[in-house]
Specification:
148 residues, two-stranded antiparallel sheet, mainly alpha
Length: 148
């Protein structure tokens, strides 16, 4: 079987797809985190998040970690800055969120599980060429990229 090389057109499409995936996940997660942290976009703010999580036995420090991960991790993914690290944190955060909603049925789990799988895809693929990571960590001399 003959191997087919990626063409510049194919790689451009992949780079565009990674950008779209990063933008969608990052913006969604930033908005969710900003609701919980700042009370914007119809959210109730950090006090409500702390109260709600404490009601199900989540310590305050974990609530803060989760909210900051959503808000600022979402921004990091959006702009492609330390993308793999942010995606790893987001994957864990969303898997925990999904597990907490399991008793409520599939439709309560689909959003965090979808976010988790998007974070996993970005973690595996990387940030793509349209990212801060690419601008900072691209090793132009050797033509290789440092994987974060």
């Amino acid at each position: 079987m003959k191997k087919q090389l990626l063409t510049s057109r194919t790689t451009s499409a992949i780079d565009a797809a990674v950008l779209i995936l990063r933008l969608m996940l990052g913006i969604w997660l930033f908005a969710h985190g900003a609701q919980k942290l700042f009370g914007i976009f119809g959210g109730k703010g950090i006090d409500a998040a702390l109260t709600g999580q404490a009601g199900v036995g989540i310590p305050n420090w974990l609530t803060y970690l989760s909210v900051y991960t959503e808000c600022f991790g979402g921004l990091m993914i959006t702009f492609g800055f330390l993308t793999r690290i942010a995606s790893a944190f987001m994957l864990i955060n969303m898997l925990v969120a999904a597990s907490m909603h399991l008793s409520k049925g599939f439709f309560a789990v689909e959003d965090p599980l979808s976010f988790a799988m998007m974070a996993l895809a970005i973690l595996l693929i990387g940030p793509g060429v349209w990212s801060i990571d690419y601008l900072i960590f691209e090793k132009r001399a050797s033509g290789t990229t440092v994987l974060l």
